[in-house]
Prior knowledge:
The chain has a domain at 26-74 and 93-131. The chain has helices at residues 26-29, 53-60, and strands spanning 2-8, 14-20, 41-42, 49-50, 101-115, 118-131. By secondary structure, it is mainly beta. The longest helix has 8 residues, at 53-60. A two-stranded antiparallel sheet has the order 1-2. Helices cover 9% and strands 36% of the residues. It is elongated and about 90 Å long. Residues 41-70 form the C2H2-type domain. One of its GO terms (molecular function) is zinc ion binding. InterPro entries: Znf_C2H2_type. Keywords: Metal-binding, Zinc, Zinc-finger. This is C2H2-type domain-containing protein.
Amino acid sequence: MALTDITKSDEGKYGQKNHFLWIKNPDALIYKDTSHKGKKHLCNRCFQSFPSSKSLTNHQEWCFGLGESPQRVELPVKGKNDFEEFKNFNRTMYAPCVIIADFEADNRKCNENYGGNMHKIMEQKANSFCYM
């Protein structure tokens, strides 16, 4: 652990004093953070504690450290997870909201027969989107 103290001299110049501490067991340092008295696992990048080593390894896959907040981004894979579905209905609360989505698409010509006199002459393929 590094401790820094900003000092000001009599001449008006600023400086800093550094003091370094070696912590032998950082997990023991955060033992009393919660009322749950069990072993806690500490992320070395962002110093967030986790109750199990499995949740720590899952977090470390997406942790960027103190500069950026860990944000897990998983893009959909075609054929595997095309659609997202909300499953935890017992955790919902009534809070009305409006989601505005704007999709940009390219028109492409195609000549498909649907049977009879119906023909599909244009097809739209999405190329970008924005939501609020």
